[in-house]
């Protein structure tokens, strides 16, 4: 099920309460959204009644229904210091009573319901607890200073949102204090617990007893304690479970009861960890765990597997010999039907292990790699592409909450070091870039992680901000790639911080250009490095200068999409032979940027703009000089635009308001300055410009071709296949609205398609023009599977030229490998080598037999 | 409706292009075939070449005056500013153009003219420094020509070493959208070879080329009428196989047939020969075969 719309709905739900009103309407769900209280039937979703409270400008915090009553209370704050309570008849939404009172000290945070008539909140300074009694005639506030009930002062307090009847928990840094509300409305401290991580809601089980769970961190273990709410000293359950440190702290705990075999009450707990993984605990063990963190992938990169090392130690050989023997005994057992279920499981496990797929070494075809995945929780996973298992995972220390880094977020992963020359004795590593706060001027946190071991090599942080990361096309002697981090003040910071790196950079200093897109402002700027930062001792810091700018008129154009070529894309040839023995030269530049803008009115949802007032403008921009190479307007069209740029073409998807359909367009750009080279004589004599270096400062002679087609689906992501040498024809990978990945041949998006192509064009492979792109059901890469909540598609080249590896991520993750032009360079997996051998042997035998026979016959003929 | 009529009449009365069309021959207009601005298509770029060795101040002034007599309301001027490396921007020339308002409310610039200020001695020196240091020569334009500088200035730069040729060759491509300038591409009109050599211009005068560009319209998705009627294009194509020759169709039958016929003929010939040699007797086989073989040879 898609979570997208559900999440939106959840945000507007403030609280929901089940009220059993009528037999035929089931329970009532009360939803507070945009100042209006709705009662919704749980059976058919019918809105039973509405109560508009928007005139009161109240922010409803809780909706309370006392047991066995038809009345509900909606309580909340108006402004920061006024408390309001509405008594509403749950059957018809009639307002019965409205009470309001001022609390001059103001409130902080949420309201917490402690018992049926007492609410607790914090005052604005977060040093006093405020109890609110709202069901009596008057609203009574009672303020208790924290230091009055807890001896020491521990700094600011935070109310935990756990619902424990008659009690609540307050957190002071590492200390958790349980406070009980007596019948007289007094506050009493029940217990203080250090190292507590999470508290569950109270769960009622037999005879009105209520229990809750408390999780503490002790050393490398977590301690799960189940307590009765009304009897603090009795522990229902006390279990300690060893926990993987890479899962971080416990964030949340939920409990559930079951009846044990001895008919006593058992409890199990579901815990949510810091890395967003989900674990079920029962009887002091982890029953199952799920890596739900993989549902929020931020960025993906790859790493090659280690090279297979020859020469194994004797001990290992002995061990493997033993294993080998054991394995064969097991297999024998299996074939003789003597194996028990455990043995069968062991055999299967061995089969999986020994299969090529899950090997931890580099394979000949380059199919098996490590996918290094960064998730929202700040955890890095290495996934094996063979069987999808997690090889290692690392909760990045630099992306964890700390005193100086309040809300860290991961940004991206880059390949930091890819050893080719020292592949045997050096491990590759990746660079993880994060920020301390979501704002773009927040300080940066860098981590360098070894991709074979999953250990953090070093980390740096809090030096400067980071608006952009630019991997440079240079590496140093240890094959570390040079990276420039651009901060908010447009200063460039060089990594790695070595003098060798500075030397390399100085050499290429004047050739480093970059651009920045200010989408909100509608400006694209180009920059170049100038000199070392002035007034700073940092020699790895460089100032920049603005070279060019493109300012889109704010009233008519808003940047909605940009696309660039992938840095590692390989183009096999620049020339493209066309039908009539002619050649066209692709304009291939690493500095091509595709930008789509649309009218600000039409950049929102559909239906906001009329076709007349919305138009989509697409640009091809050279990012070194800021030259607009091509600019084109689609009238009556609007976003969202999804685009992919590869080689010399860009394909983009948008909505045509006039035709009420989605469209896809292709734009190809060709270089005209090479056209003179067609003369063979010139080539022979040497009068050609094929070897002269190209400067982008020359005036480009380009020509673009474009064509549009209708496309049935709306699109979530577009990618293009990439192969090792770029020879194989390309396919577009389209993430459809149904969360599937569709492969569409690039030949369908060729601006040279025409209604009836000539014979020569047909031979070249040009498909007759149709108005819409075909969707061939067999070309779904995902087959019958859905990649739930698809957000991105990443393609990687395999070593085998014909094959592309595809990784799609969303809530689910999906990996496959595809061959856009079939596997022309390898035999299929089910190719029968035995048959081939047999044939060869048979042929050799036949040769011998016939040879002997012919000898014999000759001899006989000679005798006669 | 009446107000609309009134407006229409007014527009006829006041619109200079419709009411009065000067038959005076303007030098530049004739040269570039942009007479009266009527032929100026919004899509076609206006190309203006200006040679401003010493800026022809007098001629431009007179031309400008002629315009200001007829339609001063639609004439527009905006400044080109330049900077040498990191220096401040200073005035470098003036663009003059006519703003044409279309019936549907759109506005386009036509008849763009450019008068470049000659370099002062100080600027020459600065430019020479740029040439020596292989640094950037930077220009800027306002982003809105109706209310300069608009939101922000549009900047463009080029390596100074790309410009010198005989004189200083420069090429502007100004991308417009109504009264807004989106971008200006500034550079040399030709190629700028890489490694850039230090070369001082022979003449310190600019040879400017200016192109005004508006957005192109994208090609529409093709709509087929057949598709609207029944959508049987795919079938129609499939039904009509390409015509092939008789030989191409039936060669696989013809070749074996031919072989059989050939075989039959040779056999028939053999049969015909044997009776000619008389009834073969058992003893005479060897003898008879000899001459037959000889005959066949």
TrEMBL record, chain A:
Superkingdom is Eukaryota
Name all ER membrane protein complex subunit 1 C-terminal domain ranges.
646-863
Keyword entries, A-Z: Endoplasmic reticulum, Glycoprotein, Membrane, Signal, Transmembrane, Transmembrane helix
Q: Which SMART domains match?
A: PQQ
Q: Which Pfam families match?
A: Beta-prop_EMC1_N, EMC1_C
Any one GO CC term of this protein is:
EMC complex
Asked if Ligase is a keyword of the record, the answer is: no
The UniProt transmembrane annotation reads 831-853
Q: How does it sit in the membrane?
A: Single-pass type I membrane protein
As for subcellular location, the record says: Endoplasmic reticulum membrane
Q: Which part of the chain is the EMC1 first beta-propeller domain?
A: 22-292
- Quaternary data: Component of the ER membrane protein complex (EMC).
Similarity comment: family membership = Belongs to the EMC1 family.
What is the official name of this protein in its record? Answer: ER membrane protein complex subunit 1
Q: Which organism is it from?
A: Juglans regia
By which gene is this protein encoded?
Answer: LOC109009503
From TrEMBL, chain B:
Keywords in alphabetical order, please: Endoplasmic reticulum, Membrane, Signal, Transmembrane, Transmembrane helix
The coiled-coil segments of this chain are: none
Specify where it is mainly localized. endoplasmic reticulum
Domain of life of the source: Eukaryota
Q: Does the keyword Transport apply?
A: no
Sequence segments annotated as region (Disordered): 39-68, 274-297
What are the GO cellular component annotations?
endoplasmic reticulum membrane
The record's subcellular location field reads: Endoplasmic reticulum membrane
Membrane topology term reads:
Single-pass type I membrane protein
Signal peptide stretch:
1-19
Q: Does the keyword Transmembrane helix apply?
A: yes
Q: What PANTHER family does the entry give?
A: CHROMATIN COMPLEXES SUBUNIT BAP18-RELATED (PTHR21397), ER MEMBRANE PROTEIN COMPLEX SUBUNIT 10 (PTHR21397:SF4)
The entry sums up its family as follows:
Belongs to the EMC10 family.
> What name is this protein filed under?
ER membrane protein complex subunit 10
Q: Which organism is it from?
A: Juglans regia (English walnut)
């Amino acid at each position: 099920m898609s979570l997208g719309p559900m999440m939106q709905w959840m945000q507007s739900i403030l609280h929901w309460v089940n009220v059993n009103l009528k037999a035929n309407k089931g329970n009532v769900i009360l939803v507070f959204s945009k100042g209006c209280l709705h009662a919704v039937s749980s059976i058919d979703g019918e809105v039973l009644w509405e109560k508009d409270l928007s005139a009161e400008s109240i922010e409803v915090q809780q909706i309370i229904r006392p047991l066995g009553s038809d009345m509900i209370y909606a309580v909340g704050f108006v402004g920061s210091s006024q408390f309001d309570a509405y008594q509403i008849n749950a059957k018809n939404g009639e307002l019965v009573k409205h009470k309001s009172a001022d609390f001059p000290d103001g409130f902080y945070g949420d309201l917490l319901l402690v018992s049926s008539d007492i609410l607790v909140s914090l005052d604005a300074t977060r040093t006093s607890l405020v109890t609110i009694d709202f069901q009596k005639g008057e609203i009574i506030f009672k303020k208790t200073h924290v230091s009055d009930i807890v001896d020491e002062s521990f700094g600011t307090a935070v109310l935990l949102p756990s619902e424990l009847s008659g009690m609540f928990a307050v957190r002071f840094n590492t200390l958790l204090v349980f406070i009980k509300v007596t019948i007289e409305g007094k506050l009493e401290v029940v217990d203080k617990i250090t190292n507590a991580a999470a508290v569950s809601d109270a769960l009622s089980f037999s005879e009105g007893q209520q229990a809750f769970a408390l999780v503490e961190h002790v050393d490398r273990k977590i301690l799960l304690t189940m307590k009765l709410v009304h009897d603090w000293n009795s522990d229902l359950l006390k279990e300690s479970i060893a926990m993987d440190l890479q899962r971080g702290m416990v964030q949340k705990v939920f409990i559930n009861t079951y009846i044990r075999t001895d008919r006593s009450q058992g409890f199990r707990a579901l815990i949510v960890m810091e890395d967003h993984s989900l674990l079920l605990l029962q009887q002091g063990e982890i029953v199952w765990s799920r890596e739900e963190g993989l549902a929020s992938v931020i960025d993906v990169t790859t790493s090659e597997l280690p090279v297979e090392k020859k020469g194994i130690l004797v001990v290992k050989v002995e061990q493997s010999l033993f294993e080998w023997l054991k394995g064969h005994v097991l297999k024998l057992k299996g074939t003789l039907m003597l194996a028990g279920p455990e043995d069968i499981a062991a055999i299967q496990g061995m089969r999986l292990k020994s299969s090529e797929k899950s090997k931890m070494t580099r394979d000949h075809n380059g199919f098996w790699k490590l996918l290094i995945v960064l998730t929202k929780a700040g955890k890095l996973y290495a996934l094996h592409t063979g069987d999808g298992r997690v090889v290692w995972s690392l909760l990045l220390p630099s992306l964890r909450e700390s005193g100086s880094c309040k809300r860290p977020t991961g940004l991206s992963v880059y390949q930091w070091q890819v050893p080719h020359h020292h592949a045997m004795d050096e491990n590759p590593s990746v660079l993880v870039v994060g920020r301390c706060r979501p704002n773009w001027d927040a300080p940066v946190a860098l981590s360098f992680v070894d991709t074979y071991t999953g250990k953090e090599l070093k980390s740096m942080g809090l030096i400067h901000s980071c608006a952009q990361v630019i991997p440079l096309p240079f590496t140093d002697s240890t094959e570390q790639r040079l990276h420039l981090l651009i901060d908010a003040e447009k200063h460039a910071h060089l990594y790695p911080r070595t003098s060798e790196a500075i030397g390399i950079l100085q050499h290429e200093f004047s050739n480093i250009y970059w651009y920045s897109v200010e989408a909100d402002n509608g400006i694209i700027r180009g920059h170049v490095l100038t000199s070392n930062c002035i007034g700073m001792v940092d020699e790895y810091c460089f100032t920049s200068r603005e070279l060019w700018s493109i300012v889109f008129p704010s009233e008519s154009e808003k940047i909605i999409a940009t696309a660039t070529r992938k840095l590692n894309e390989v183009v096999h040839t620049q020339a493209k032979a066309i039908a009539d023995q002619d050649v066209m030269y692709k304009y291939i530049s690493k500095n091509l940027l595709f930008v789509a803008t649309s009218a600000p009115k039409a950049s929102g949802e559909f239906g906001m703009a009329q076709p007349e007032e919305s138009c989509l403008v697409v640009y091809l921009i050279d990012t070194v000089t800021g030259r607009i190479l091509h600019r084109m307007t689609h009238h009556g069209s609007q976003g969202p635009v999804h685009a992919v740029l590869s080689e010399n073409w860009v394909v983009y998807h948008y909505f045509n308001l006039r035709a009420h359909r989605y469209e896809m367009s292709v734009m190809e750009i060709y270089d005209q300055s090479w056209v003179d080279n067609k003369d063979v004589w010139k080539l022979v004599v040497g009068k050609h410009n094929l070897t002269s270096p190209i400067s982008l400062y020359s005036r480009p002679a380009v020509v673009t071709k474009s064509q549009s087609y209708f496309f049935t689906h709306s699109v979530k992501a577009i990618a293009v296949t990439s192969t090792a040498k770029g020879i194989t024809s390309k396919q577009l990978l389209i993430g459809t609205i149904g969360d599937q990945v569709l492969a569409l041949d690039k030949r369908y998006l060729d601006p040279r398609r025409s209604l009836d192509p000539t014979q020569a064009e047909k031979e070249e492979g040009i498909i007759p023009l149709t108005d819409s792109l075909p969707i061939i059901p067999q070309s779904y890469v995902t087959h019958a599977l859905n990649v739930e909540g698809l957000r991105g598609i990443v393609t990687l080249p395999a070593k085998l030229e014909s094959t592309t590896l595809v990784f799609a991520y969303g809530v689910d993750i999906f990996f496959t490998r595809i061959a856009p032009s079939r596997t022309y360079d390898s035999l299929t997996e089910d190719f029968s080598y035995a048959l081939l051998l047999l044939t060869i042997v048979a042929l050799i035998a036949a040769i011998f037999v016939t040879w002997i026979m012919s000898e014999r016959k000759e001899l006989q003929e000679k005798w006669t | 409706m009446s107000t609309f009529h009134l407006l229409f009449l007014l527009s006829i009365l006041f619109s200079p292009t419709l009411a009065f069309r000067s038959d005076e021959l303007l030098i530049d207009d004739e040269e570039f075939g942009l007479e009266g601005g009527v032929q100026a298509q919004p899509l076609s770029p206006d190309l203006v070449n200006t040679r401003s060795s010493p800026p022809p101040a007098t001629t431009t002034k007179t031309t400008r005056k002629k315009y200001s007599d007829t339609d001063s309301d639609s004439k527009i001027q905006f400044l080109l500013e330049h900077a040498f490396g990191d220096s401040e921007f200073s005035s470098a020339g003036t663009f003059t153009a006519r703003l044409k308002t279309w019936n549907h409310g759109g506005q386009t610039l036509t008849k763009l003219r450019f008068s470049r200020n000659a370099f002062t001695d100080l600027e020459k020196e600065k430019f020479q420094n740029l040439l020596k240091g292989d640094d950037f020569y930077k220009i800027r334009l306002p982003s809105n020509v109706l209310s300069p500088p608009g939101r922000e200035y549009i900047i463009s730069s080029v390596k100074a070493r790309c410009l010198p040729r005989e004189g200083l060759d420069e090429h502007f491509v100004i991308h417009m959208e109504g009264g807004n300038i989106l971008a200006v591409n500034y550079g040399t009109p030709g190629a700028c070879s890489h490694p850039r050599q230090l070369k001082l211009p022979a003449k310190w005068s600019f040879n400017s080329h200016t192109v005004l560009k508006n957005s192109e319209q994208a090609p529409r998705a093709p709509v087929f009428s057949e598709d609207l009627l029944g959508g049987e294009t795919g079938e129609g194509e499939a039904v009509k196989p390409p015509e092939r020759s008789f030989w191409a169709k039936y060669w696989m039958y013809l070749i074996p047939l031919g072989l059989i016929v050939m075989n039959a003929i040779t056999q028939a010939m053999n049969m015909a020969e044997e009776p000619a040699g008389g009834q073969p007797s058992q003893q005479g086989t060897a003898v008879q075969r000899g001459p037959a073989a000889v005959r066949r040879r």
